[in-house]
Amino acid sequence: MSSTTYSQKAAIYALLGRIFISELDRQSLEALQEQQISSIFEKLHSGSQKYLQDTKWDKEQIEQLASDYCHLFILPQKSGLSLRASHWMTNEESANLTQLESIIKGLDLDSSVVNASLAKLPGDHLGVLLYFVSSVYHSDDKQIQKLGTSLIQLSLLPWILRFNEKLLTSTTNPLYLASGKLLLELLDFEGLEE
Amino acid sequence: MNQNNNEQNESKLNRRDFLKLGGALTIGVTTLGLAAPLFKQLSGEQIQLDLDNFISIRKKDFVDYTRAKAIPTICFGCTNHCGVIGWVQDGKVRRIEGNPLDPNSEGNTCSKTHGMISYTYYPERLLYPIKRVGKRGEGKWRRISWQEATQEVGDRLKTCRDSGHPERFIFHYGRDKTKGFTKRFTNAFGTPNRLNRRAICSSNRRVPLMSFFGRDFEWETQDMENTKYILNFGANPMEAYQGGLFMMHRIQKARVDNGAKMVSFEVRPTATVNCSEEYFKVMPGSDGAIGFAMANVIIDEGLVDNAFWKRWANIPLAEIKQHIKDWTPEHAEKLSGVPAKDIRRIAIEFAQAAPHCTTMTARGSAKHYNGTQGDRGLRMLDVLVGNVGREGGLCLSSGRMWGGGKYGQEGLPSVSQPKPKPPKPKAFTPGTAAYEDLPADIKEKVAQLDPKWQKKYQGELATPAEYPLAWHWYGMKVGQLVQPYIREGRAKVDVYMSFAYGAAYGYPEAKVCRDVLLDEKLVPFHVAIDIGYSEHAALADIILPEATSLERWDPHSTNCYGLVPYTGIRQPLVKPLGEAREIQVIFRDLARHIGGGMEQYFDYENVEDFYKEWYKNISARIPGGWEEFKRRGIWQDPDREKDYELYERPVPYEELVDSTIDPETKVITKLIKGKKRSVGIMMTDADTGEMKPVRGFPTPSRKIQVYDPIFPLAAKSARLPEGDPNGNALPTLFSIPGFDDLKEDDMILTTFKWNVHTQGRSSQWKFNAEIVHTNQLFINPETAARMGLKTGDEVEVTVQRPKGLTYRGGIDEVVGVVRNKVRLLNGVHERVICFAHAGGHWEHGAVARAENKESLPIKEPKSGLEKDFSNDIWWSKDQGGTGNGATAMNDVLPINPSPLVGGQNWFDNICQIRKIS
């Protein structure tokens, strides 16, 4: 695979990392309104392009989206689902995760481009893991790029399918539904690449 | 990935779509705020090294001791607070074991210790401040920043404080082991309403101890390892008891090495019962009757330690003999069911073992309408046989935080909060804004109080007028009345702050609490500080995520069952997860926001510096100082003698300077900080016959107050009818209202704590929930047969509202109805049904609710990879298990504070059972 492809995949992982790591702000939502991006979302979940483009994204709408995020991903409510891998993986798998968390935390994050909350998140948070894969793919070093596959296999594949299944039944929010499907398809795409 | 037959797995994107999306994003990512994080110093060699290590980790070796670091701290799994050592690897606590330096636990631990790992790392833990965006209780929230949270909560508090009514800030906590740190905040704020849950827990049993032996001895410290005879009235140290883990191995040592005998009087076969040489099923609330009967036997048989009684009891033996003469073993047999001959035999055995014998009481004996007076009767047994403070007996340990010349703590380094310390909130006296704000009928009640209590009165929440003994010795309060009193307008609220508190689930008639918290007129603003999303926090306006005990500092001290005082330090093993913060940081920032002088008491940046100052006198005693203290986690003076017979120790010369001796009582008093205080008593020296100044007991008479005039004074103040037995100055036997005329089918509903749980607060700890996750209704097989019940049958339990002269949460005769499944158990009293009060959570996450993936399409996991946190909850109903127990039962348990004291009478519930399947 060419470096160009790696850097393009890195960008998609970063996009998903941003979507799952915390509530979206106006700047991020305006980025998602861009035609080429929103049309892909539309392919994944019908109505998501209209949702992204037609919504005014004023304070009230952004707060509504933040409330959806909180309800879905922060609170342990019946209709909520955790973004943390340790929620979904077995203890044995989680032992690996802990090691991975330590690697991530041991690396020096450039806080100038990273959401400030990233550094405080648990290392098994989906957003952190996606950002980490993105970072690995961003590298020009082929050896590092290949490690991306290992990271995905160890930290994402064991649970993302089930995460998505529950996401489907937990929300009607088009953005998060499309994002979940995008993640699933991206991982499928990774499999095809192999 | 796409082998599962799901709609979502039909690919909708092709390679071109990905390239298109990636391309679009690559062009604009940085400017659009979607950039990936960049890792500085990211070299191929470095990451390869880390990943090799990662991939090759031996999966079953959870802790690699060549890399893990051991850090001591203090457990917070239950009320024992054992010294423990946490093994930290890769920035995570991986294992916890006992700290052998802890003189109480001596290195032992229990499952609740490991629960700390569960509650720190459970993936549904609340990690961010959140604010509600829907109606209160609706469950709609959004994440907010700490800045926004501090601003909003701080503004509310500042407005309240600036209004001149700081008492309208209510701080209501569950288990607060900050040793006064939160009080520093409420005192600095100026509110007396730092409310606890002591009445729920143990005030009925603390009052007899403080009345008899003094404020400093609210908890008993039996010298278990040297005893030869234990009379256990409703205590369960082998499972759930404050100090239980410290006692259990000492009890076993005494039984095995000393041939000690334990006799238990209980309503059900506990683990402690199973370790006893003899067990007697007793009717709930009849322990006192057995105690008075035994006292009669000990007196009649001439087994009283007359020298001890004469020297230290504050009433002649003849008066006690006359007072209790009718409460014979035969009378006790009628009330308790224990044969009179056994009561006689055991009383004699107990007295003959003196002083190597001790009583042990707890909720089983005390949490009744007659429990305070009953426990006074049981305490009297120790005084009669003279085991108090003696080897193998009922000892008194000088265990609380050291400082300010507290009783028995001579020679110990002072351990106290850094200065400056805020002043205590002022009393509500006529003319103060707080007093004038009281409703007229409350002012009338206050006017009826004895002047000594009028001077201390601080409103109905902190100092309820009808329960003066809840705040006579110190502020035990009456926690179960807080919400009902707010409902009735007895106190006004501007800001209600709950701290690790679960009344909305776990208190009696918990629905009353929920109704009040949902009423925004009664509670305009509720901020909850907690580590999880509890039923109580769910009714807040803002929730602030707190650091767990593995992530924060606390001082530690408690009574020592080895009888040599010690102290320890809870220290963070890891940084708080997510955006959780230590309470010390939350309060520091709030105090600075509120300002107005509050900030001066929180003048620290680094929390460790604050505790380093707190412990500076300990550090000074240890070679290596603070760092060495942290490394050990525990400090104890190895040369200090045991706390035997503290009352016989001489009063130091410097304390006698400027003192006076009362010619009649011989009590030595002196002015300390402007107040006349007793410091000792003149007693005859056994060897020389001369009068000498000794400590005595820290009571008004400096003797053991078997006769205590505080009871009739409290009864008069609370306007109990004259002659009401609750107000008797002498220990007194009387029946629980309604128990004398039980109908044939009436049963008594009692509750209990599971050994691996900490009431209802541990239901989300997966480690512990996996072990116990039910709360079936236990019943005696004979009773069950009479009712046609067998194990597994579902029954409906109807709980009647109790009678008696105390507050009632409602007027309906029936408090509520709850369903549960029956389990037959030999050894349960024939009149008793019992079930654990922890179960039936509706918040706190998947483990507490025992949910599986109810909404997921995949019902049968296809591979190991499909197991997950939820699937591992094999006891969920989806998996064919029992679920998370029966319906939460606390709604049907009546609010039932003991007269004068306010301790919740948990075990006085008359009920009826009906089979429904």
Our count of domains of chain A comes out at: 1
Radius of gyration of chain B: 29 Å
Choose one word for the global shape of chain B.
globular
What's the tally of helices of chain B?
31
Note down, in words, how this protein is organized:
The complex is a heterodimer of chains A (194) and B (917). In chain A, 72% of the residues lie in helices and 1% in strands. Chain A has a single domain (3-193), classed as TorD-like (Orthogonal Bundle), CATH 1.10.3480.10. Chain A is globular, with a radius of gyration of 16 Å. Chain A has helices at residues 3-21, 26-32, 35-44, 48-54, 59-74, 85-88, 91-106, 126-138, 142-155, 157-170, 174-193, and one strand at residues 108-109. Chain B is an alpha/beta fold. Chain B is built from 31 helices and 30 strands. Residues 1-9, 34-61 and 854-868 of chain B have low confidence and may be disordered. Chains A and B meet through helix 1, helix 2, helix 3, helix 5 and helix 6 of A and helix 1, strand 1, helix 2 and strand 6 of B. Strand 1 of chain A pairs antiparallel with strand 1 (39-40) of chain B.
Q: Which labels suit this protein?
A:
heterodimer; A: 194 residues; TorD-like; 11 helices; globular; B: 917 residues; alpha/beta; Rossmann fold; Dimethylsulfoxide Reductase, domain 2; seven-stranded mixed sheet; six-stranded mixed beta barrel; 31 helices; disordered N terminus
Tell me briefly what this model is.
The complex is a heterodimer of chains A (194) and B (917). With 194 residues, chain A is mainly alpha-helical.
Topology:
The complex is a heterodimer of chains A (194) and B (917).
Chain A lengths: L2 H19 L4 H7 L2 H10 L3 H7 L4 H16 L10 H4 L2 H16 L1 E2 L16 H13 L3 H14 L1 H14 L3 H20 L1
Chain B lengths: L14 H18 L6 E2 L3 H12 L13 E6 L8 E7 L2 E7 L12 H11 L8 E3 L8 E3 L2 H17 L6 E5 L7 H9 L4 E2 L2 H4 L1 H11 L7 E2 L6 E5 L10 H14 L3 E6 L4 H4 L3 E4 L5 H14 L5 H7 L4 H8 L4 H8 L3 H13 L4 E5 L1 H4 L4 H15 L8 E2 L37 H4 L3 H9 L2 H4 L27 H6 L7 E5 L3 H4 L3 H9 L7 E5 L11 E4 L8 E3 L9 E5 L12 H12 L12 H8 L1 H4 L5 H8 L1 E3 L16 H4 L3 E2 L5 E6 L2 E10 L6 E4 L15 H8 L29 E6 L13 H6 L5 E3 L1 H7 L6 E7 L13 E11 L7 E5 L9 H4 L59 E7 L2
Helix pairs in contact in B: 4-23, 5-23, 7-16, 10-13, 10-14, 10-16, 13-14
